[in-house]
Amino acid sequence: xxxxxxxxxxxxxxxxxxxxxxxxxxxxxxxxxxxxxxxxxxxxxxxxxxxxxxxxxxxxxxxxxxxxxxxxxxxxxxxxxxxxxxxxxxxxxxxxxxxxxxxxxxxxxxxxxxxxxxxxxxxxxxxxxxxxxxxxxxxxxxxxxxxxxxxxxxxxxxxxxxxxxxxxxxxxxxxxxxxxxxxxxxxxxxxxxxxxxxxxxxxxxxxxxxxxxxxxxxxxxxxxxxxx
Length: 228
Prior knowledge:
The chain is mainly alpha-helical and 228 residues long. The protein has 13 helices and two strands. Helix 5 (59-66) packs across helix 6 (76-93) and helix 5 packs across helix 7.
């Protein structure tokens, strides 16, 4: 397994992760007060026990997110390990002053880590077309390389977008038309909608993916101007 070297570094967390994900015995989610206390201990005092507790009590995020990527091409243990790397990075780099919840930020880190793993795996395999299906999402819809690499962003950029989306809920009605709002809600999982790639949004709305991309960019520009 390609993760053997990394597993040595994070062995205690990973083996715990593999155990709880496979058994379903997740630690109970932390309440806001306890999470804030542990974050302060870790960020202000470098308390490793506090960090490990934050990781352990957010492992359910890894199990939830990797369900989107299950397929015969990827070993479940690899996905769990890669997702846990993302969770660790999320806890290590989380900044409460950004105005976003730890679970939201960590979820973006987990997603980003898994997508990078998938890209790396495909580079090491036979060449395929960007439009060839390589996976299915949690709804059984085809996932292609173009869906994965269409947005060439890193986790920091994606997280910043997520933060802005949470802050902009109050101005959605004010500056976006119905189609723009619908696409933004689907794209970033707002108002209870599933977070979808542009290709899937295009299918649902019966328009082209490039048109979805243009509308999304225009809507984000409007929101940025309004938020300023």
